[in-house]
């Protein structure tokens, strides 16, 4: 896989008037962003309305983006959710669809300390075994963006 660098565009998720995933417009958006010179696509991020979609809808978005991108740029699939089991299921779906990496945030709505955050991301890295991009927020702003692969994940003693 190409190194993840440059402009990685968070994608809005196009919907039809009846609030279904709009396959045609999603494909048009993929082309528009790639033709505009971006270096990667990030569907189902915080501008992708991911919290509103069930598992099947999330799978549809990732499958559509990966299919239409057809290897032109890397696809980093958002898998965030407050529940770790859901994150793992979404990550498996993204990996199965061919996403190049997954992006996860800390579990939102639940306060957790440093150990809880480490355990959250460690569990994802170990169980999914693919490139994981971790985004942490502080006071509503991104405070760090870390990419790790399973083999790079630090081991705690």
Key terms:
157 residues; alpha/beta; TIM Barrel; four-stranded mixed beta sheet; two-stranded parallel ribbon; 4 helices; globular; disordered C terminus
Quick overview of this protein structure:
The protein has 157 residues and is an alpha/beta fold. The protein is built from four helices and six strands. It is globular.
What average pLDDT do the residues reach? 82
* N-to-C order of helices and strands: EHEHEHEHEE
Number of domains: 1
The CATH topology turns out to be TIM Barrel
- Overall strand count: 6
Note the main sheet: 4 strands, mixed
Q: How many separate helices? A: 4
- Name of the CATH superfamily: Aldolase class I
Task: Note the topology.
Elements: E1 8-10, H1 23-35, E2 40-42, H2 55-69, E3 76-78, H3 84-97, E4 101-104, H4 114-128, E5 132-138, E6 141-148
Parallel strand pairs: 1-2, 3-4, 4-5
Antiparallel strand pairs: 5-6
Helix pairs in contact: 1-2, 2-3, 3-4
Explain what you see.
It is a single chain. This protein has a single domain (8-151), classed as Aldolase class I (TIM Barrel, Alpha-Beta Barrel), CATH 3.20.20.70. It has 157 residues and is an alpha/beta fold. It has four helices and six strands. Helix 3 (84-97) runs parallel beside helix 4. The model is unreliable at 136-157 (pLDDT under 50).
């Amino acid at each position: 896989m190409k190194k993840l660098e440059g402009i990685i565009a968070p994608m809005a998720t196009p919907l039809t008037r009846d609030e279904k995933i709009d396959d045609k417009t999603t494909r048009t958006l993929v082309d528009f962003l790639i033709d505009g010179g971006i270096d990667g696509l990030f569907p189902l991020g915080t501008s992708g309305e991911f919290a509103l979609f069930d598992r099947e809808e999330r799978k549809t978005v990732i499958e559509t983006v990966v299919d239409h991108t057809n290897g032109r740029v890397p696809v980093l699939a958002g898998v965030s959710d407050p529940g770790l089991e859901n994150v793992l299921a979404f990550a498996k779906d993204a990996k199965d669809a061919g996403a190049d990496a997954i992006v996860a945030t800390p579990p939102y709505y639940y306060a957790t300390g440093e150990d809880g955050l480490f355990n959250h991301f460690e569990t994802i890295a170990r169980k999914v075994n693919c490139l994981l991009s971790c985004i942490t927020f502080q006071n509503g702003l991104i405070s760090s963006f870390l990419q790790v692969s399973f083999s790079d994940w630090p081991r705690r003693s």
